[in-house]
Amino acid sequence: MRQLSAAGQQAINDLAQRHGFSSGAVLSMLQSVINGHGSMAQFSHPEFGGSGQWMRGGMIMISDMFNNTLKGRIDALCRELSALVADQPAILGGSFQSQSQGSQQQGGSGPAGPVSLFVPPADAGSGNWWPGDLGSPNSTGAQNSVRYAYFAQAGRLAIEIGGKVTIYDTLDHQIGGFSQQQSHGGSLTFTSQHGLVEVATLPIVSGEIKARSAPTSPPSEPSLVAAQPTSDIFAALEKLGDLHGKGILSDEEFASKKAELLSRL
């Protein structure tokens, strides 16, 4: 998914508060609605009772089939997301163009004025900065001095900072929006069906690849991972433990990544 704009993040937060779901769950459903071209969604998230399907017009199926209250909340959320996507047709295909829409939300109290869900990707004229063998990304974006490209089919995430590219294995994550702490070397996080996740908890496939379209940086400039303060490393270790406890990481993957994080202390 493309990077959310400030207005887009606010729209997601408003929907989450209005319908009683977390922002991560709403982001997950937004991706499902986009994948269904705005008219349907096949989803899987704990807050939605697991796996389910929604179709515009009132058809909804969830694992907890007799929970009509949950069905109603999911249906209302999907209808609003469908309307949001319909007002921004560039989301469903073609090159990104800044789209705006009036926030007339049924039963809601969203902010007045135009809303543009996503920010434009990095300048397409500068060429691809990620390794060519990854193919075409499902989404790209930039924030502060960081650029990312997500390759869902390959299960890879490319992060470029200071002219250096690091490739991560995304495991089973279905990546949604990205965010970065507002500080120099601030940690980078993303949203998936498992909630908010630190990029540093993902296994590194390769690193320190010079970006083809980025300016040359001094050799001493740290990579995104190396720039983490000690507090971020401890936070990443906690996230790593959670992923291992949930069975997302194998014992071998957990031990390898834990050793790598501890070596940075």
Q: What does this molecule look like?
A:
Helix 2 (23-35) packs across helix 3 (68-86). The chain is globular. By secondary structure, the chain is an alpha+beta fold. Residues 93-114, 122-126 and 208-227 have low confidence and may be disordered. Strand 4 and strand 5 (146-151) form a beta hairpin. A five-stranded antiparallel sheet has the order 4-5-6-7-11, with no helix packed on it. A three-stranded antiparallel sheet has the order 1-2-3. Strands 8-9-10 form a three-stranded antiparallel sheet. Helices cover 28% and strands 22% of the residues. The chain folds into two domains: 6-92, no CATH class; 128-262, no CATH class. It has five helices and eleven strands; from the N terminus they run H-H-E-E-E-H-E-E-E-E-E-E-E-E-H-H.
What is the straight-line distance between the termini? 33 Å
Low-pLDDT segments: 93-114, 122-126, 208-227
Helix content: 25-40%
Report the portion of residues in β strands.
Answer: 15-25%
Rg is 19 Å
User: Structural class of the helices, strands and pairings?
Assistant: alpha+beta
Shape: globular
Give a quick account of the main beta sheet: strands, pairing sense, barrel closure: 5 strands, antiparallel
Total domain modules: 2
For the largest sheet, list the strands in their spatial order. 4-5-6-7-11
How many extended strands? 11
Mean pLDDT across every amino acid position: 75
Count of DSSP H/I helices: 5
Secondary-structure element order, N to C: HHEEEHEEEEEEEEHH
